[in-house]
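REQUEST FORM: STRUCTURE PREDICTION
Request ID: SP-0412
Submitted by: Lab K.M.
Chain count: 1
Length (residues): 242
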Amino acid sequence: MTPDRTFETWNPIIGCTHASAGCDHCYARAIALKLQQQGVKLYADGFRPRTVPSRLDLPFKWRRPRSVFVNSMSDVFHPDIPLSYVKRIFHVIEQCPQHVFQILTKRSSRLASLAHDLPWPDNLMIGVTIESNAVRNRLDDLKQVPARYRILSLEPLLERLAPLDLNGISWVITGGESGPRAHPLNPDWVRDIRDWCAASGVPFWFKQHSEYGGRRPPALLDGRFYHEKPNIRITEPNLFNF
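STATUS: Completed
RESULT:
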């Protein structure tokens, strides 16, 4: 990704439901319930999944190219979100080639089933979350998607993973769990992933250790930071050609 891009989040969907162990201490659910308690109208229903059509056009308003994380407060491929609305999200991504969008999902089976109903522009990075060996099948689902850039989010990492086949993967991100009840992260689990990435030539990003007693140590592994990124090649339009 271009290093000077501003990072944004874009939430045309809010709310979700428990999918696997990686959801046990969901930060988004905690935020949603707090906003509900504060009387924020959008979160009157707490963490119930629902669309927010008024936010669909937000990327069109960002004139400077940005790296955009899609739905930090939900899951694009949640079964309660209609395919028609997912298509609207993808249409916006297609129409904003100046931005690089990232989508992560735990609903990999639905991702795979809908993959051929959706466009896959080069400015979109699609990925799945794998936090334990119990959900490693998500990688097989991801590889069915005809996207140029596929990514793995191995976080919150809850155990040592058996080796993963990184063929066709553009980026791997890993890290521990955040929050005061975070599961501990063994650095050896992260070293395994780093070494798989090095052997496969895949960029590796170590995001964070788990929190301990409300304190999160620096994201150092063997004395260094790992903040590698893929080189996303997109064609940016003339933003001033009105």
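NOTES: Strands lie at 6-10, 13-14, 50-51, 66-70, 100-105, 124-129, 149-154, 171-174, 204-206.
Reviewed by: T.R.
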